[in-house]
Structures are given as C-alpha cells and as structure tokens.
Amino acid sequence: MFRGSMVALITPMKASGEVDEAALEALVAFHLENGTDAIVAVGTTGESATLNYKEHRHVMKRVIDLVAGKIPVIAGTGSNSTAEAIEMTEIAMQDGADACLLVTPYYNKPTQEGLYQHHKAIAERVAIPQILYNVPGRTACDMLPETVERLASISNIIGIKEATGNLERARQIMELCGDRMDLYSGDDATAMEFILMGGKGDISVTANVAPQAMHDMCAAALAGDRATATRINATLEGLHTSLFLEPNPIPAKWALAQMGYGDVQGIRLPLVPLSDAVQPKVLAAMRLAGINCIS
C-alpha cells in the first residue's frame, strides 16, 4: 500500500519548547518538493513521548492539512495503554490520516499473547490501515515473527516497521507472512539491503535531512537496481551513522536547525540539544551527502 522513502518527521520546536508552526509548514513543503513518498507524523522521531494529547492531535492534523492529499500521511498513534492507542487511532482516522503506525507497548513488557491481543483490539475497533512497529531497543518489548504472522491474518493490519536492523529477522517475517503483509525497514543503515531482499520501503530518520537522496535510493532498490542504490547510499552512510550518535531525534533536530528548520535548542527534556563533541561529525556527514547549511 505504501512504498519508498517515508520520513519519520521531526516535530520542529522553538527554544521555548513550543511547536514551531512556521518551521513545520516549511518542513512539510520541503518534503513535498524533494521526493518523500509518505510522511509519518508524531512517531518516535516526532517526540510523541513528550507531546501532550492536544499537541499530538494538532501536529497530526496540521501535517495532514499541509500535505493536502499529495502523499500519504501515516499517524503515530501507539501507546502502552491499549485504550489510549484505540482513542488516538480513532482520532487520526477522523482527521484524515491514510494509516496509523502503532509501536509495541513500551515499559509494561507484555507477553507475545498480550501483543497479539493489543494489536488485534485496535484493528478490530478502528478500520484504518495499521502498521505494526517493532523497536525493542526502545520499548524493551520484542514482537517475534510468529506473532507478526498471527496478526497478518487481520485485514487492516497491512505492514510492519521492523527496526531491529536484523536482516535475518526481516527475511523470516517475509517467509512467514508472504504477501499478506508489507515490510518496512526502520533502520537506515540496513534499509537498502532490506528493500533489495523484498521490503517495500524505509521509515527513515535520514530522510529528514536528505529526502531526495533517500527517495532515489529507495526507488532504485525497489526497482532491483543494486548498483544505483549502492552509489546513492554511499553518500548517505555518514548520516545513517551520525544521526544516531546521540538518541534520535537529537542529531536530526540539530541538523535540520542548521538547514533552517527549527531552533538548535528546540527539543524537550529529558532530551537535550546535540553535544558540542558530536556536532562536527554530523556536519561532516551532511557535507558528504551534499547538504547545504545556512548557519
């Protein structure tokens, strides 16, 4: 259903911490002009953990309105409370999202049966297409391939963002689910290989900073053109690494501030701005990718 480079969009903020509305508008326009295939609004990279309920809905709705149907918008609506996830998913559907991205419940540490029942309950209550999101490095909860296979039988669970970076895990899910579920990489460093082996795209942090190159790399990989994908990906490898030298979205927000989107101090506690020691590494990666900075 969704293909290519899907940016896990940051939520730009002012130094005060409030959402920077002008920067958000400019950032969406930047992606529409530079080949991004879909926008994921208010996921992990969008600081969903520190946006309050009103802000979460506002940013989702604002992105949907700004995109105006030009590309799909996938709303981050996951929660460690099943009831809250249902409520936010219902709201995203009402507000016009094309799909929802639902992270595995964090902190509670549910069993595999609990994961199945959680996602089954959301899918049965809300008819919108839903993408599972497995990122055990953040959630302390790993959705195993056998559970993904069970959930693939639910018609509106249409895909999974598999962010372990483990290509063997991705291959196993593909074998178990076949064409019942689309797989999306959630790990930029391995995304090219992930797509070449059958994945449908990448829900990407790097695409925040280099949207056109990420679109071109994903398009080449989807076409089976390894040589072109490898050539483009070589210019992005520095970003794939440096944007994770401190917890996401710290480096991405700093990089975008250098490009004019938001403030270098525009991030919410407990996250803090990018450290001085890491800044030169991010800047060098940006230069390797051919990105111009205004500051």
From TrEMBL:
Belongs to the DapA family. The active site is at Y133 (proton donor/acceptor), K161 (schiff-base intermediate with substrate). It comes from Thiothrix unzii. Homotetramer; dimer of dimers. This is 4-hydroxy-tetrahydrodipicolinate synthase. Its EC number is 4.3.3.7. It is an enzyme of class 4 (lyase). The lineage of its organism: Bacteria, Pseudomonadati, Pseudomonadota, Gammaproteobacteria, Thiotrichales. The gene is dapA. CDD domains: DHDPS.
